Amino acid sequence: MTKKSILKEVLEEIKPSENDKKEVESRVKAFVSKLNKGLKDAKAVLYGSGAKGTWLRGGFDADVFVKYDYKKYKDKSDQISDVLEKVLRKKFGKVERMHGSRDYFRIKEKDFVFEIIPILEIKKASEAKNITDISPLHAQWVKKKVNKKLMDEIRLVKAFFKAQKIYGAESYIRGYSGYITEILTIHYGGFEKLLRAARKWKDKEVVDICKYHKNVMMELNTSKLISPLIVVDPVDKSRNAAASLSYEKFDKLKEVADRFLKKSSKKFFVEKEVSVEDLMKKAGKNKLLLVDAAPLNGKEDVVGAKLMKSYEFLLKGLKKYGFNVKDKGWKWDKEKRSMFWYIVDSKKLDKFEKRKGPSLDFEEHVKKFKKKYKKTFNEKGRVCAKVKREFVDSYDFLKNLLKDKWLKDKVKGFKLRK
After folding, report:
1. Distance (Å) of CA 241 to CA 130, 151, 171, 206, 310
2. Which residue from 20, 119, 113 is spatially nearest to 73, judged by alpha carbons?
3. What global pTM score does this model have?
4. Which residue stretches of the chain have pLDDT < 50?
5. Which of 72, 172, 320, 398 could form a disulfide with 304 if both were Cys (CB 3.0 to 4.6 A apart)?
6. What are 96-124's pLDDT values in tens digits?
7. Distance CA 17, CA 26 (A)
């Protein structure tokens, strides 16, 4: 199959049918109408991919923004989450409060997930009291820029990113948000053009679609430039919309974009469930370390963030001790099960490691170093020591690391598979 025919076939599978659109429209309309009947000084409106016409077939996440009167709430915007929660619990009963820059809410109805976000109704970004207040401006900007063809291109990008597990700006994902995928697709002019550009991205790649800045790196606040990709927000020139993007997800896009363009296949649009069998096959002669982690109870974003931190803590520990980690990853079913995996060079470490000490010019420090370590020697103007390792096998090391006190409040417990 040609690349063109592959994308055409994928689009037919991911694009909602007219019946899908009618059903979604009906259910969203009923939900918003019910919510509006309980609101005062506020109005509920659909935004997100549903309003922009860029959502995918199969499951529907509706972003419903509740816009509060700016004049009345601008000095007490920190209270609107509490105000909205009372209305939601009265109208819908089971409501999940989600933590964010401003708390928002999640209501599940069969295969629908409604996320209800309280915001101040603003006309320009400078009026915002919280980043979420700007979201309707994002939706308005996207709607002005897209036509039917670009909507379909955005769908392809989202489906591709989701399948490759690089979609989502949550703290435990740190990938590409829906808004970023829309900006990038509009900027480059489509799915394939975006991939061709992405595989050539350099660190600190800048996308300034409105050309607000002559030199973004000099004009934006340093704290907003820590991500590998700088996407200047079209509705707020002082903001990097990709500020939370991780290097891992940035590099992953470059890698999969290159692979797809070289050898296109529908498989790139299918999310593959990671199995132990696949990991064992991938590890080959290397050692596969599997850790089952029991997540805590609580809010999804908080629980997910703690799992991610635990995974990263173990990864850093393995690398710092000297083990060669060839591949790694983790998965979570959003409920009771989570698994971390690390593919490590099967070769055991040397029984002794070289520990570098101070320069020979600092006599007092050298004396202290020699007093601490029995077997020392000089190398390239420094004193060094030969220190016996406590662990030479990665399995034994990881088993011990899992006992670290720092992990106690991150998960319920761990189990290292044999």
Report:
1. 14, 20, 14, 11, 27
2. 119
3. 0.84
4. none
5. 172
6. 898 878 999 999 887 788 999 999 999 99
7. 14
